[in-house]
Recover the amino acids of this structure.
């Protein structure tokens, strides 16, 4: 069973933009809160942003004003619009419930480099 499938990552220059998508199973998406996590090499996985079913959002301080999390409940899809990207945003990005409970997907790699 494929429960979480992330896509949309890639290589971008500093200051560029990307939009990530996460296709989730209904059983996972029915959770009250969904979030985006990221993990850079040698670092612990960290929560980047999360969103409730009714659209309440919260962001890690380092991405405030640059990232926007959204969800389409009808499509069981989670999004992360990333703008003004910095090298420190380089990581593998994952989606999951908050707190997480499902097995992690393969993630999608975001590399910000000139």
């Amino acid at each position: 069973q494929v429960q979480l499938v992330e896509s949309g990552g890639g290589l971008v220059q500093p200051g560029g933009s990307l939009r990530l998508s996460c296709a989730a199973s209904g059983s996972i998406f029915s959770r009250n809160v969904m979030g985006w996590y990221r993990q850079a090499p040698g670092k612990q996985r960290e929560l980047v942003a999360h969103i409730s079913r009714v659209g309440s959002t919260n962001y890690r301080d380092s991405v405030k004003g640059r990232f926007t999390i959204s969800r389409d409940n009808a499509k069981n899809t989670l999004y992360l619009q990333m703008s003004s990207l910095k090298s420190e945003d380089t990581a593998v990005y994952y989606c999951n419930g908050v707190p997480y409970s499902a097995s992690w997907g393969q993630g999608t790699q975001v590399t910000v480099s000139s």
